[in-house]
Amino acid sequence: MARDSTEIAIIGGGVIGLATAMRLAAEGREVTLVEPNEPGSGASYGNAGTIADYAVIPVGTPAVLRNLPSLLFKRDSPLSIRRSALPALMPWLLRFAWQSLPQNAEKNAAAIAALLMDSLSGWRELASQIGADDLLKQNGCLYLYTSKLEFASASADIGLRRQHGIAQEFMTADEVAALEPKLPPFEGGGVLFPNAVNLTDPGAMMKRLAKAAAAAGVRFITARTERIERGERQVHVKGAALDLLAKTIVIAAGAHSRMLAAQAGDHIALDTERGYHVEFDMQTPPLSRPVCPTARGFYLVPMAGRLRVAGTVELGGLTAPLNPRRIELLERGAQAIFPTLGKPDRTWLGFRPSVPDSVPVIRASRGGSNIILAFGHGHLGLTLAPVTARMVSAIIDGRPNALSHRK
Ligand SMILES: Cc1cc2nc3c(=O)[nH]c(=O)nc-3n(C[C@H](O)[C@H](O)[C@H](O)COP(=O)(O)OP(=O)(O)OC[C@H]3O[C@@H](n4cnc5c(N)ncnc54)[C@H](O)[C@@H]3O)c2cc1C
Hints:
Elements: E1 4-11, H1 15-26, E2 31-34, H2 43-46, E3 50-51, H3 62-73, E4 79-81, H4 86-99, H5 102-116, H6 119-129, E5 136-138, E6 141-144, H7 148-152, H8 155-163, E7 169-171, H9 173-179, E8 190-193, E9 197-199, H10 202-215, E10 219-221, E11 227-230, E12 235-239, E13 242-251, H11 257-263, E14 271-281, E15 291-293, E16 298-303, E17 306-315, H12 324-337, E18 346-354, E19 361-365, E20 368-375, H13 381-397
Parallel strand pairs: 1-2, 1-13, 2-10, 4-17, 6-15, 13-20
Antiparallel strand pairs: 3-9, 5-9, 6-8, 7-8, 11-12, 12-13, 14-17, 14-18, 16-17, 19-20
């Protein structure tokens, strides 16, 4: 196999790797992207498609910590754990518990809010650059509460969002019914995030992004990176069908980044929150915006030719197969809201790259800035892809990077 070389090698072609490749190539750099599968076919394909500029609340909060035992072990909970994975998950869970304490959760919310600030403008700019304006829809996003009590239990989150200047409009049950008339009654009303944007087809967006990156000069290598070795002047990227020297590499392999980062000397508590979706094909979905019945832990999202029901969290690592009970949970949950839905036309499992504090790792490796870490975006990778790309570009240029979060 002939040895290859490049200025920048990006490891992983999810939304983070693709958006970063696009940005760096548009800035005139020589970029090679290494990805074993079809670009954009991992978590970046199957998500709920929301550019969630409002989502400042980390996964770990005092309320989640308080309810963790019932959330983890109750049947039909939106959060579940595969018992066989518990021992391996313990270190991550302990860190997660620590990050859920009040002061830590507030600090993490502030870090996430800073990253989210330019998420919408970043996506508008990127979509227009790659000719994908048609795949962005601005119609807000709606959180729903089944009872006044449920709404009241969200008060800490609402307060934290207010503190960070997030636009949120409170709606009575009647106002929700007027806005989305096909929904059943939600007695606790709702919160509308009016600025939120969503993708009408995340898979199609990934394809456009990959195509635009290729047109901008990004070279794609279909291979899995198995080893990275830092040399004096270059980083050696190796795999069964891969022998590449790069001046700089960016680790953007989503939930699979932990081993690669460890090879660079960065030991990050990265694990995965497994998430699922089911899709129901239909010409006209019964909603005009993404809607989240908060207690169920999923979004119902109108997408091109279908209704996608995406979300929930299963802690259980990267190798266990799809859990049919989690699919049933989504299916029954969707049918409880829209009783005429039949069997889903498609089901899917994907791996969120998750760190205990919910703040993505976007920084130079501790061993030097010729290796850059860009992973751990958890529930917000789609939203934060253009912001991440901008930060990676700043790190490569040696420009100050106030948003980079040390851990
Ligand atoms: C159900 C669900 C709903 C979600 N909803 C939203 C949402 O509404 N809004 C939002 O912002 N986010 C959402 N997310 C989160 C979002 O999808 C992820 O944070 C994001 O896709 C992560 O992007 P990524 O590029 O880091 O990872 P991925 O998309 O997983 O891409 C990583 C890539 O790296 C490749 N790779 C792995 N190992 C190697 C290797 N050794 N060498 C080379 N390449 C490798 C993989 O093949 C993969 O293509 C959701 C996630 C799920 C599961």
